[in-house]
Amino acid sequence: xxxxxxxxxxxxxxxxxxxxxxxxxxxxxxxxxxxxxxxxxxxxxxxxxxxxxxxxxxxxxxxxxxxxxxxxxxxxxxxxxxxxxxxxxxxxxxxxxxxxxxxxxxxxxxxxxxxxxxxxxxxxxxxxxxxxxxxxxxxxxxxxxxxxxxxxxxxxxxxxxxxxxxxxxxxxxxxxxxxxxxxxxxxxxxxxxxxxxxxxxxxxxxxxxxxxxxxxxxxxxxxxxxxxxxxxxxxxxxxxxxxxxxxxxxxxxxxxxxxxxxxxxxxxxxxxxxxxxxxxxxxxxxxxxxxxxxxxxxxxxxxx
Length: 304
Fold this sequence. Notes:
Blueprint: H1 12-22, H2 28-44, H3 51-54, E1 61-67, H4 71-84, E2 89-93, E3 96-98, E4 107-110, H5 114-128, E5 130-134, E6 136-137, E7 142-144, H6 148-155, E8 162-166, E9 191-197, H7 213-220, H8 230-238, E10 252-258, H9 263-278, E11 284-290, E12 298-302
Parallel strand pairs: 1-8, 1-9, 2-5, 2-8, 4-5, 9-10, 10-11
Antiparallel strand pairs: 3-7, 6-7, 11-12
Helix pairs in contact: 8-9
């Protein structure tokens, strides 16, 4: 028996290719060695090509996106990846989002009756494969989201493979601190992706450059008018009142540092990742560095 191990990365896809060889009980030792090698390699090497792989997604997930600096872009890019892999996906929000463009979703359904939304998803998801749902069209092209309870109800429909929820608002800013009622994370959430824009580092802390600047100041200790630091970004990720506030204790967490589009920002992002891991947050299992506007959105994945 012979096989080739990727010289650039060993990943979960290798197991699929090798499974036919491994099914023989006599090859159990080989499987064990390969499994150990893959897990070690994933912690030692960073670059991956796909968001689904970078985030460590499982077969079925409720994914809640919180923070600032790229949530909506991540939601639709991730949904497209999953759709192309044969998954059935629902995208929505528990706050507000801009109405999706035609290329971002296969069908947008808006209904003030949440049971009507549930019924539509049940009857039409197999047809469209990717549905975006909301309760109301608001002014300025925005949609009013659904309740966390509806997300939990939708999750009970076995035909849905993944629900992606934008569970936070940031008015387009790269950094934020949650207000009292934020984020709005459904209890069915299995994975929380916490996003911050690396371009926030070095910005003067005020309402023009950050969402809820006073809250950021309280969490980080950085006075309003001073510049946001690498340490401050790590605190926004890990503090009990930071962007992960209200994440279900059973959910996994991935920190996503977006807008890593230059060597300088890559250096800042890696220092933020180091600070995050130093704080030993119980749920954060990895830090993804990326640029969601690029054709290849993932630059690196860093493990503790």
